[in-house]
Amino acid sequence: MINKILMAIGFVFLVALAYLYLEIENLKGQRESLTKVQRPQASNATFAGNPKDDPYLNHQVKNTIVKKAKELQICYKDFLKTSPKNTSGTIKLDWQVQADGKVAVPGIIHNGLEDKNFGECVLAQITSLTFPPPPSGNTKYVEHSLHFNDEAALAADDKRKKEGPLVQLKK
Fold first, then answer.
1. Which helix (H) or strand (E) holds 126?
2. How remote is the C-alpha of 168 from its chain's centroid?
C-alpha cells in the first residue's frame, strides 16, 4: 500500500515538473518575442550608420510632414500672438512610426522657442499624422527638426543672401 502511495506521489511530482518545464519554455518564448518588438528602434543603422541616408525618412516621412505644414504654421502663428521674446528657433522631436503608419511614443527633444504650449501644439500635430508604413514592416524610429522664423527674421535672411558672402563697402 505504501509503495502505491509513493508511486502516486512520484507520478504527481513528475507531472508537476513537466508542467513547470513547459511554462518556463513558454515564458522564454514570450520574452524573445517582446525583445524583438522593442529592437526596431535601431533599424536606422542599416543605412551606413547614418539616418540621413535613409530614403524612408528623407522621402515618405519628410513629405508627410510637409503636407501638415499649414497646421504647424497655425501653431506658430498662435505662438507669435503671445508676443514672445524669441520668435525664431528650432523644435526637435522624436517618435516611432508603427507598422501601420501610426505615431507612437512622440516626444520633444529640444524646444528652441522655449514655449510649452507651442511645443505641445506641434507635438499634437505630429501625433495626428499617419505615415506610409515603414518598408521593413517594423516600427521605425524618427528624429526630426522643424525650423520656425518670423517674417522679420526671414527678411533679414533674404537680405543677407542677396548681399552674398562679401559685402561691398561704400566709398
1. helix 116-127
2. 46
Residue 49, classed as helix, strand or coil, is coil
- Three cell numbers written together for 69: 505644414
For Cα atoms 40, 42, 48, give the angle at the middle one, nearest 5 degrees. Answer: 130
- CA 19 to each of CA 7, 14, 16, 23, 38: distance values in angstroms, whole numbers, following the listed order: 18, 9, 5, 6, 29
Tens place of pLDDT for every residue, the chain, 171 residues? 887 787 778 777 777 666 767 777 776 766 665 544 443 343 333 444 566 678 899 899 999 999 989 999 999 999 999 988 888 899 999 999 999 999 999 999 999 999 999 999 999 999 999 999 999 889 999 999 999 987 776 666 666 666 655 444 444
DSSP 8-state symbol, 93: E
The CA distance from 88 to 105, in Å, is 26
0.70 surpassed by pTM: no
